[in-house]
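Entry 14. Structure prediction run on the chain below.
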Amino acid sequence: MNVSVFGLGYVGAVTAGCLAARGHRVTGVDVAASKVEELNHGRPPIIEPGLEERLGAALREGRLSATTDASHAVGETDLSLVCVGTPSTVSGGLDLSFVRQVTREIAEAVRRKSRPHALVLRSTMLPGSTRQLVAEFAADLQSSGALPVYYFPEFLREGTAVRDFEEPSLAAVGTHDGGAIPTALAPLFGQGTPTVSWETAELLKYACNAFHATKVAFANEIGRLGKALSVDAQAVMQLLCQDTRLNISPYYLRPGNPFGGSCLPKDVRALVHRARLTGASLPLVESLLPSNDRHLQSLMERIATSGHQEIVILGLSFKSQTDDLRESAMVEVAQHCLGRGHRLRIYDPQLNLAALVGSNKRVIDTRMPHLASLLHTDLRAALGTRGLVVAAQKVVPTDQLAPLLTAEHTLLDVNGWPELRTLGAPYDGFCW
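Output returned:
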């Protein structure tokens, strides 16, 4: 494939070298004549292990060149990858001026071509950016098929970028509607790479970077607290990482219910309190409970603006398959609904009020003494004939739920229960 790579910085240079090493014919494009000259001599504009060897080999074999002429590069290639920078503005926003300029130049060059040309954006951009750029510069080309546009986020680490390119740990391709990519492009993106919408692929890049930043900040905060308490925090974190079932795993990493239960809220409070006594500042850990509270408020706002007067909660406990009501977000939701005058019904087959003991019983006695009148053991009675069904836990098989739903019900999926989409009633996801 003949490929042009716009932007010969870190991502662009690595992309050009690695694609050329795979056998593609690559034309690098940059406004900086010095970068173009370096690439035309097989010298990388950056220091990255393995890159110079790949560029040199590609140059000797006639598969690599570079130019400052964008129109010429588009005319001689079948596909353009945009790898230009997206720096911060003074206010902290995203500066898309370089991407806009390159996208405009590519679109104008494609209009002068007699054959289709693909555009692949790799620059890190906020959700909605690709759609905005297409609307501004290439809507007619995209719709006619003359310039199909893809967003292909990069996950390259400085120092291991060549290896990351050749052995990616993550890949996804954004298309305008999440549809499949042409078979001819599969070798470029990687066989089996999932396709999603432009916006999903754009947010994926930011989610990854924010998660990496969170991990670094968290480990450093545990380190500061450990130092203050004369505890070896390196040993703590090494042991923490050995748990690949909960700690280093997909577990917990899905949008949905606020956290609750007998452990997380109280233990975060205790950790924050002890840190304050030692003088250690833990801004990230201290933000966990306020963030959780804000998530709960967001759920309550969704319920309040649903337009339904009748509310049905499926699953009152903080976690599926338990009867633990301690600091359950759904207890808060129930109280909120009652306080706003909603007619409330609750269904949770795990709850047996007569069997509740200890702190679990105290939650009911002090916060929801009227729970017995709200809790239904019969699903049909709980659902009634109308209302907003807040599906907090999978407490009932969907084949039992489906025949009891009416056109007057709306399903609000709080915890990621995808089968609810197929039940016929209006469906809304809390965070998706």
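The chain has a mean pLDDT of 94.
Filed with the rest of this week's runs.
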